[in-house]
Amino acid sequence: NVGEDCPIFEGLFEFCSISAGGSIDAANKLTSGESDIAINWSGGLHHAKRFEASGFCYVNDIVLAILELLRFYQRVLYIDIDIHHGDGVEEAFYTTDRVLTCSFHKFGQFFPGTGDVSDIGIGAGKHYAVNFPLKDGMDDWNYQNVFRPVYNFLQVSSLGVVQHIIEWYRPGAIVLQCGADSLAGDRLGCFNLSMKGHAACVDFVKDFNIPLLVVGGGGYTIRNVARAWTYETGLLLGEQLNE
């Protein structure tokens, strides 16, 4: 697939080395206890497969990082909030229960065309792939209703998908892919998330105090990507950045 949606450019191998190496090193910082949270915004290339480049992704740094984490942790949870389905990561761990993949994504006539709610894994991995397909225009309020606990007027809470998964699966580490193409105004995306709505997902996962690897991903309106990931870096460091 190189040369189709994955063009060849000068410095390609160095780029792949930096992206993948950053995520592997970040995983090692978690397993060594050197860090509680590690960030690699140049990572998150979730479409790459073992034998195929795909969707601007050449080497799947996430899969390589998770393999490092599995040397130390019995179970790893992968959460993907990119607008595109995290197909490369799901495919890599589709037959194992040691990695649970959870993807929130636009579905239907949209790249890569995978991630149906009925795709749940096979063999030992059956029920360890979770897909939450969404429609155009998804906004902060609706996204949070899915992602995290919601209280109604009687103060009765529904757990939300992510909290339910974490309490049931009890992962030793979490990998969070923060593709910013789910933000409003993205050149390829069709969701309507604000910067703070996107960051609320990061903040929610952080609050579980489980070793956390945060990686980048998609995002095609560059000023929005830079703003969102800077703001989320601040959140992860406990710093409230002004607008």
UniProtKB/TrEMBL annotation:
This is 8711_t:CDS:1. It comes from Racocetra persica. The lineage of its organism: Eukaryota, Fungi, Fungi incertae sedis, Mucoromycota, Glomeromycotina.
